[in-house]
Design goal:
- By secondary structure, this protein is mainly alpha-helical.
- The protein contains 23 helices and 4 strands.
Length: 501
C-alpha cells in the first residue's frame, strides 16, 4: 500500500512530468534526421511561390514557373507558402527545420491535450500520444499539409470538448478556424466534413422516433440550431479569400482525378512496409474495440471512425485523417466523476516556461550533436536533388527550353528561375492526360521519339536512373553533355541558338 502511495506521489511530481513532456515533444527527432525537413520534392516550388507572392503582393491565377503558364491555376496553399518563405528568408534552410519542428510540437501538444482531458490521466495520455505521433510521422513532412494536420487536431479538440461538456461554446471558434485554414491549405475540406457530419447526425437524432433516441448516446446533444449556424458560418468563412469558391472546383477535380493516384506514391494505399503502418492499424483497431467495450451507441463516433478509416487507409499521405479521430475516440470516456486539482495559474505558467526552455535546449543540442546547420543542410540537398546539374545548365544556357524529370520539377522551379519547367508535381495545373503522358514517356512506355515536349527541348535534365535517360543515351539524336552520380543532361545534336558562347 505504501509502495503504491509512493509511486503515485512520485508520478505527480512536476519535475518528472516536465521531463516526460520534453521527451514527448522531442522524440520525433529520433525517427528521422533533422535534415529530412529539406528533402521533400515539393518544398522548393512552394518557397518560390511564397517569395513571388510576397514580392508581387498578389496570388497566382495561372501556372507560374511552367511552360503551361496559360493554364488557370489555384494556389490553394498560398498562406502556408508565405509562412514557409519567410522562415527560409530569415533563417535559411534551418528555418524550414525550425518551422517543421514547431508544427510537430504544436500537433503533439494538441493531441496530448485531447487525450489527457478525455482520460483524466497524464500518464495514460503520454504513451497514446507517442503511438499517435509515431503512426502519422510519415505524413509530417515539410509541406503545407502539416498545417492542416494541426488545424484538424484543433478542430477535434473543440468538438470533443463541446460534446463532453455538453456546451456549444467551444465549437463557436470553428468559423474563425476555417477562415484561417481555407487560406492555408485545401484540406480544410476534411475538417468541414467532420463538422457537417456532426451536424447531420445531430439533426438525424432529432427526427428519429423517441424510442430509438432513448437507446443512443449521448442522451443530451448539442443545440441543433446553433450547430447549423456554426456549420453555415464555417462554410461561408471558407469562401473568404482570394480564390473563394474556386477552392471547391479544385477539390472536385481531385475527387474526379484518377491518374495522380496511380503516379504519386504517397496517394496510394498503405503498403505495410514500415512499422508506423502497423501502429496505425493497432490504433484504429483499438478505437473500434473501445467503442464495443464501452457499449457505445454514439452514431457520430461510429460514423466518423468508419469514414475516416476508409479515407486514411486509402491514401498513405492522409492516414492522419483516421489516426487522430481514433485517438480522440479512445480518449473520450465518461470521467466526470474524476476531479482534478486546480493548480494556481502562476504555477502553470512556470511549468510551461520551464518545459518550453528545456524543449528548445534539447533541439539546439540535437542540432549541434548532429551538425545540422545551413551548410550541412545544403550538402544534404545537393546529395538528393540535381544541384550541380542545375548549376551546369545555368552556366551554359540562357533561359533554355527544358525537359525535366517529373520528380525534380519542383526543385528546378527554385534552382533555375529563368527556365520554366516542362512538368512538376501540381496535378491540378496539368491535368490527368498531361501527367499520364509525361509519366509514361519517362518510363519508356510510350513512343518517346515522337514526343513534342521532348523534341522541342533545348536541354533535357533527367535522373540517371529514369528509363528515358538510358534510352536517350543510346539515341544518336541526343548528346550527353553532363553527368554526375545523380543526374544527366542531354542536348539535341543541333546546338541550340540560345547557348552561351
Amino acid at each position: 500500500m505504501s509502495f503504491s502511495s509512493d509511486l503515485r506521489a512520485l508520478s505527480d511530481r512536476p519535475v518528472l512530468r516536465c521531463l516526460a513532456i520534453v521527451v514527448l515533444l522531442t522524440f520525433s527527432t529520433r525517427l528521422d534526421p533533422l535534415s529530412s525537413s529539406v528533402l521533400d520534392a515539393d518544398i522548393w516550388w512552394h518557397l518560390r511561390d511564397g517569395n513571388a507572392i510576397v514580392a508581387h503582393h498578389a496570388v497566382p491565377h495561372q501556372g507560374w514557373f511552367t511552360q503551361y503558364s496559360s493554364h488557370p491555376w489555384v494556389d490553394y496553399s498560398w498562406g502556408s507558402e508565405v509562412v514557409m518563405s519567410r522562415f527560409h528568408h530569415w533563417f535559411g534552410l534551418m528555418g524550414l527545420v525550425a518551422l517543421r519542428s514547431l508544427l510537430e510540437i504544436a500537433i503533439t501538444l494538441v493531441l496530448f491535450q485531447i487525450l489527457r482531458r478525455g482520460l483524466r490521466s497524464f500518464w495514460q495520455a503520454v504513451p497514446l500520444t507517442v503511438a499517435g505521433m509515431w503512426a502519422i510521422h510519415h505524413c509530417l513532412g515539410m509541406q503545407p499539409m502539416l498545417i492542416s494536420v494541426l488545424m484538424f487536431a484543433v478542430e477535434l479538440s473543440l468538438i470533443f470538448e463541446a460534446r463532453q461538456r455538453k456546451i456549444v461554446g467551444p465549437v463557436l471558434w470553428l468559423p474563425l478556424l476555417f477562415l484561417l485554414w481555407a487560406n492555408l491549405h485545401i484540406q480544410f475540406i476534411y475538417g468541414l466534413f467532420v463538422l457537417l457530419l456532426l451536424t447531420a447526425v445531430t439533426w438525424a437524432v432529432r427526427i428519429l422516433p423517441r424510442e430509438w433516441v432513448s437507446k443512443l448516446q449521448p442522451t443530451a446533444t448539442l443545440p441543433l440550431v446553433r450547430l447549423i449556424g456554426v456549420a453555415a458560418a464555417s462554410i461561408a468563412a471558407t469562401l473568404v479569400g482570394p480564390y473563394s469558391w474556386r477552392l471547391y472546383a479544385v477539390i472536385f477535380h481531385y475527387v474526379r482525378s484518377s491518374a495522380l493516384y496511380m503516379i504519386i506514391t504517397e496517394l496510394q494505399a498503405l503498403n505495410f512496409r514500415v512499422p508506423e503502418h502497423f501502429v496505425l492499424v493497432l490504433i484504429v483497431a483499438a478505437a473500434f474495440l473501445v467503442l464495443g467495450w464501452r457499449r457505445s451507441r454514439d452514431p457520430f463516433k461510429f460514423a466518423l471512425l468508419v469514414i475516416c478509416t476508409v479515407v486514411g487507409f486509402r491514401m498513405t499521405r492522409d492516414s492522419w485523417f483516421c489516426a487522430l479521430p481514433a485517438l480522440a475516440i479512445i480518449g473520450d470516456r465518461d470521467a466526470s466523476e474524476i476531479k482534478q486539482k486546480a493548480l494556481p495559474w502562476l504555477r502553470k505558467l512556470a511549468f510551461a516556461a520551464v518545459t518550453a526552455f528545456l524543449t528548445i535546449a534539447v533541439f539546439v543540442l540535437l542540432s549541434w550533436d548532429s551538425r545540422t546547420n545551413n551548410a550541412t543542410l545544403a550538402r544534404a540537398v545537393a546529395a538528393y536533388f540535381p544541384v550541380n546539374a542545375s548549376a551546369f545548365v545555368q552556366a551554359h544556357w540562357f533561359e533554355p527550353r527544358i525537359y525535366n524529370d517529373m520528380n525534380w520539377g519542383g526543385f528546378l522551379i527554385w534552382a533555375l528561375p529563368d527556365s520554366p519547367v516542362a512538368i512538376d508535381n501540381r496535378p491540378d495545373l496539368y491535368g490527368d492526360d498531361t501527367l499520364s503522358h509525361f509519366f509514361l514517356v519517362q518510363q519508356g512506355a510510350l513512343d518517346w521519339k515522337t514526343d513534342p515536349d521532348l523534341n522541342a527541348a533545348q536541354v533535357v535534365l533527367l535522373n540517371r536512373r529514369t528509363p528515358l535517360s538510358k534510352l536517350l543515351a543510346r539515341d544518336e539524336r541526343f548528346h550527353l553533355v553532363y553527368e554526375d552520380p545523380l543526374a544527366v543532361v542531354f542536348t539535341p545534336n543541333i546546338a541550340p541558338s540560345s547557348s552561351r558562347q
